[in-house]
């Protein structure tokens, strides 16, 4: 038996497809996360200038520094989900746990890995030039964040989520 599609069915299907394709522009939690990340990375230019009195455009794409863009991203996501769907939902619980894990990792494991890399780089610099390790590229030492940088990123994320929610 062949199914006949009515004009109403076609119209409903078109609305369903067009609303699915426009999920990203209307997804406030996703937009909040992306905007918080971009804003935190942009702010690193100014915090680096304030601290080191020099402009460093590499800070736009580098990890580490003030504020934590990882913390801003996951906090904006969790806060936007909480504002949109309430604090009792599964999506908020998942986002909150994710945010806690990311922020703990940024100020714990990654911070200490960066400090170890800094120490190893100093040790390699003190080796004689003929040592085989001296030709190895230095390790990246700007990996993690101090607790203050994580806190600043999380505050930024909350502010972005709140402003995105009130503007939509």
TrEMBL record:
What are the protein's UniProt keywords? Membrane, Transmembrane, Transmembrane helix
Q: Where are the transmembrane segments?
A: 30-50, 71-104
Q: Where is the signal peptide, in residue numbers?
A: none
InterPro entries in alphabetical order: DUF212 (IPR003832)
Presence of keyword Membrane: yes
Name of the protein in question = Acid phosphatase/vanadium-dependent haloperoxidase-related protein
